[in-house]
Amino acid sequence: MLNEKMKNALNKQINEEIYSAYLYLSMSAYFESTGLKGFANWMMVQYKEEMDHAMKFYRYLLSRGAEVKLLAIKEPPNKWKSPLHVFEETLKHEQYITKCINELVDIAEEVKDRATYNFLQWFIDEQVEEEENDREIIDKLKLIEGSKHGIFMLDKDLGQRQYVPETE
Ligand code: FEO
After folding, report:
1. Is the confidence at residue 167, as pLDDT, over 70?
2. Cβ(150)–Cβ(160) under 8 Å?
3. What is the largest CA-CA distance in the chain?
4. Is 20 in the pocket of ligand 1 (CB under 6 A)?
5. CATH 1.20.1260.10 fits 4-158, yes or no
6. Where are the domains of the chain?
7. Does ligand 1 have an atom closer than 6 angstroms to the CB of 134?
8. Atom of ligand 1 at shortest distance to CA of 16?
9. In this structure, are residues 6 and 108 in contact, taking their beta carbons and an 8 Å threshold?
10. Residues 62-82: pLDDT tens digits?
11. Among the atoms of ligand 1, which is closest to the Cα of residue 130?
12. Where do the H-state alpha helices sit in 64-159?
């Protein structure tokens, strides 16, 4: 049986991951509306990955015989000042998600739930990668300093990102 505190925290994380997906879908729409289809593609891939993350928690809860309880998803913003602003907000959000994952690990340790502790290791690694990706794009955007040619080239580059479905 999954500990009650652990179960509630994992259910809350489904919500955090779906909100992440919602936020990135909103960012994708923003980019598309400003003509940056490559940036929009990058965010659309991110949206799909976040839904995969949510489903990992969803499936894990069910595999432990625990109840899945879906919570209300809050409304994400839909306007930003610039591509740099979008990615600064993305990094801030991912740093928050990293904090959430670390708190889940703390609970798993506290209640001595080794299976959940193991399950969470994938997310620990994933968060390192996500924050690194965001930082890389922020660095590029800072180098470009709003130059139209630079944004055009980066848009082409971000348009190459492809969604790879999770295999479980
Ligand atoms: Fe699912 Fe981007 O954290």
Report:
1. no
2. no
3. 57
4. yes
5. yes
6. 4-158
7. no
8. 1
9. yes
10. 999 999 999 999 999 999 999
11. 2
12. 83-110, 114-144, 148-158
